[in-house]
Write a structure and sequence with these properties.
By secondary structure, the chain is α+β, with helices and mostly antiparallel strands. It has one domain. It has three helices and four strands. It has helices at residues 7-11, 73-81, 91-98; strands at residues 29-33, 37-43, 50-58, 61-69. Strands 1-2-3-4 form a four-stranded antiparallel β-sheet, with helices on one face. The protein starts with 6 loop residues before the first helix and ends with a helix. The structure holds zinc ion.
Length: 100
Amino acid sequence: MSKFFPIPELKSFIRCPLCGQSYNSEKIKVVKKKDNAMIFYLVCPKCKSSVMAMVTASPLGITSVSALTDVTEEDMERFKNKDPISVDDILEMHTFLEDE
Ligand SMILES: [Zn+2]
């Protein structure tokens, strides 16, 4: 059984790495879910940056990592189904996605 945190709670941890804006949860897309981590894709309502964020829940608490990306929403669909993109900033998320 997954003891995962409710999504709205996790979303509140995500901030734009560029302008610090917190996001309206409706704008956030869940790219990938695992037991203790989730990857989100979102576009900042303030500075329009595309951001990928990974939120990890552990006994020590919730950690979020955000990275700017030039991946579009369309690319993200491909990313999900096909070859991973290779952007250094999101290498950690990339590894996570590969780890099925
Ligand atoms: Zn922003």
